[in-house]
User: Fold this.
Amino acid sequence: MLSECRAYYRNDAIQLAQIDEFERKFQSKDAIRWYTRPGFLYYLVNKALRSQDIWVLYKFRYFIIDLCCCLEQVSSSQSFSSIRLYRGTKLNREELEQLQVGCLISTNGFLSCSSDRNVAEMFIGIDPMTDISSSHNRDAWQQFVLFIIDVDRRTSTNSVVADVSHESDIPDENEMIFNFGSTFIINDICFDNDKCIWLIQMSSSSDNARINDGYEKYTRIRLQHINPTIMFGHVLGFIGHHFNQSMNYFHRLLRTLPIDHIERPNIYHNLGRIYRFIEKFDKSLNCFRCARLL
Assistant:
């Protein structure tokens, strides 16, 4: 992960220094503090999650797991039963038109919000002193949106949202974070003519069955039968179509796992399928033979 970060910021001395500090000081229990700190980690983790680049996500997997666990721990220790949160952001017109009342939406990353409406509105250019929006000067393609999110833990039992203001470098933002893959239902969409922004009211939801796409369904079915370590290489190749990376991943597993590891036949079998798919039939046959012999 750190090699990826250093490569991205190779010409930025400030970020490189922060990466060095992370390497020296990071502990799993500090994941929230590092994520909310302005700098390389927040940007690159969210960039990886938005892109859904499996290989990049794999490199960040340990930090993402640490952050998920920390958010769950903090959330479970906080006693509020209901709360209203706000998030100000910009969407293009096409993205906005896809949002309809009654639709379920799911985040493909961590969702930062604030319990203070003024803070969220500042992110879309509304001056908290004058209540005047700079969005009047935006182009027609760009839309400023304020998401109003109601969380009721009594009905949304699977929702994980944590008040992280005590660990943030900017505690006055009253930041709260929804965990990876949170689900919401859209209740209302309207336009505020005075502030020239869209208001989208949502509530947290435990009903995520309707938004599972083919990839998620496929992954869950396969995970019932395949070790997650093997599953990552399988998805890398056959879902992400990164065949070279998938082969490198499986060959790396063969080099690092014990010679009598129970998953070695499955690794050879998956390598055989990949080689067959890219029409390297001799190598494919050899891998299938190795799988049968183990």
User: Anything to note?
Assistant: Residues 209-223 have pLDDT under 50 and may be disordered. The radius of gyration is 23 Å.
